[in-house]
Amino acid sequence: MKHWKQCKVLTRTSALAAALLVASCGESSAGLPVALQNTGFEQAVNGSPALWHIDQKVQGKGTIDLTTLKTGNGNVLRLTPNAQNTGSDLLGAGQMLDASQFAGQTVKVTALVGADDNALAIVGVHVLGDGDGFDFIQFKQTDSQGKLVAHEANLTVAPHAKNIIVYAITNTTSGHAYFDDIKLTGSGSAVSKEAESTGPLSASVTINTNNIIRKVPRSLFGTNIEWINNGQGLWSTASNSVDKQAVSEIKSSAFTLYRFPGGVFSDYYNWQDGVGPQKSRPAALHYPDGPKSQHFFGTDELVYLSKQTGADLLITVNAGHGTPKMAADWVDYLNNKKKQNVSLWEIGNELYMDGDLSGAEISAKEYANRYKAFASAMKAVDPSIKLGAIGGLNYGSYRFIKSDNWSKTILNRVGDDVDFFAVHNAYAPVLMGGGENADPKEVYKAMLAAPLNIEANIQSLDKLLANYDKPNKKIGVAITEWGPFFHVLPSSKWVDHIKTFGSSLFVGATMNTFLRQPRVEIANAFKLTDMGFMGWLGNRDGKFVPTAPMIAFDMYAEVINGSVVDTKVDVDSFASRSIGVIDAVKRVPYLDVTSVEKDGKLIVMVVNKHFSSPVTTTLNVRSRTSYGAYDMTVMTADSLDANTGTQLPSIPGLDWAKQVNMARFNKGADKEIRVSREQKTVTPTNGGDGQSVEISFAPMSITKLVFKP
């Protein structure tokens, strides 16, 4: 991830806006217009829109001109990106305004936006000033076949705002993005905050156990373990062994599959440095020009941990700087010499990403060539292993794959040799894409809307992979990294929010998403432990402590090997804004429900995303089984930022930013996350259409219901 430039007048702004701000950073507000200029793009200078700033850094990334469409709107701004349109400086145009005309008002922002040929058109409006808490909006229009689509939103302009920046950009590498009639209209009235509805909510959930969606694979409950920093704390130098307390915590968790040795560190890792006597193992770089670690936690220690905790292994081989022989020797070491029968092997990590930290990014064609060579060498050692290729589909602003055609290229060339497709499409909200200064509740709303976008992306990937399935071989999907993720920089006031209760609601809703999608066979949360801030098993006063996301994840363990059954939900919804890399969603149901039948029991997992209201729900169950009782487990907290008090590490020379504190962030403790259990009875039936039971789901909660005959 890159550290984007900032103007002195700003605290932080989105990467998308930063490229357009550079030329304006030296201007005072007095030298700027107070109203948006040339909003309909009727004025032109040398074929470009007059009065709109175009940064020199975007030259060579495509063309910016004016055109007309069949709709007869007159001139429209057209952006035509090319393959160079990547990174933080993106093709587009912008204006910076003096905010004084709109200060203290609610401003209506409207725009006509369109795209074609898989382009993405983005309009952004950011309020800027000294300090935090400034509002912004973004309109994101995917391919509309060139038709202009009307967008509208309200923007809060704080009384002490200094500037407003408006931009029209595209972050794709093909097609066209179109813009017209971008306008800001002041209300003339003081800013007002709309409170979330606190009235009573009701819902209806219908479960049909006779309609089975899929079996729940054990491999859906994985996590990531990294080799660096003593296995990110799993190796205890004090006891010269794998940390016993860590083993105890992991044994009681739901984790059943360990992905090793990265993430990003996989593509700079020589597994042979991590075996044999520890005293003779070398220290090695984490990545080119990066820090070093001694190889205390290598393959043998991983095998020990897997045996102690009963988990299986997924190995990511070094396809960035390694060789097919190196990978084949690792297969031989684990499956022949160590008799571990490791079946899941992933070839490379995020080699498709522009500026991948391993320094080994490559084209899709080159990756396909490497994949074929690695697969041939590895299967020559053990033909029974299953191999995964890396890929996925960009969607909206979630665009980490440099080439939109990456996956099709891979599948066309080596699809017959691919057992599963390894994708990383389920991080949220990723505020490096903008939104650090948004209202914290809006940030969490966007995060809880993200699973709907993730589910749609999995369904799109399913359609693509179906074209390459064979009658006796269906290509699986492995989400080998996923989880709550706010920011990567210690200077961010959000970086430590992955440990919060709000993040655990995202975990629950995302698990429901994975359970419902039959092609998703593997999922590895990111990550088990971390010497930084991303460990689901965190650190508090030198001891391992589960975070709220891990507690939520563990609630799902009982569904392993069960059958997901048809579940329909009728409930009110909310709208979320575009924040970070998460696109706006117009209708997000307050309840997210998935049901699993197992061993005669019915397990119902319910996430209530409403921040303040319970949802009174009629649960209609159609089943051959009559249930007489149910156990109810509820996870809840008093605030979205409640947490178990895990701590950021103290590192000389490193200062962590003061984190956003909504209500409870600074009061972290075990008691902040509450898990209650009770047993209830239901009226049994003798068949017929089924049973009904009324249950109230607490606001901001994850509930597990286990119905018993």
Automatic annotation (TrEMBL):
The entry's keywords: Signal
A GO biological-process term: polysaccharide catabolic process
Pfam families found in the cross-reference section: ASD1_dom
Keyword Transferase: no
Signal sequence interval, chain numbering: 1-30
Domain Alpha-L-arabinofuranosidase 1 catalytic: 256-390
InterPro entries per the UniProt record, alphabetical: ASD1_cat, GH, Glyco_hydro_b
Keyword Signal: yes
Protein's name according to its UniProt entry: Alpha-N-arabinofuranosidase
Organism: Marisediminitalea aggregata
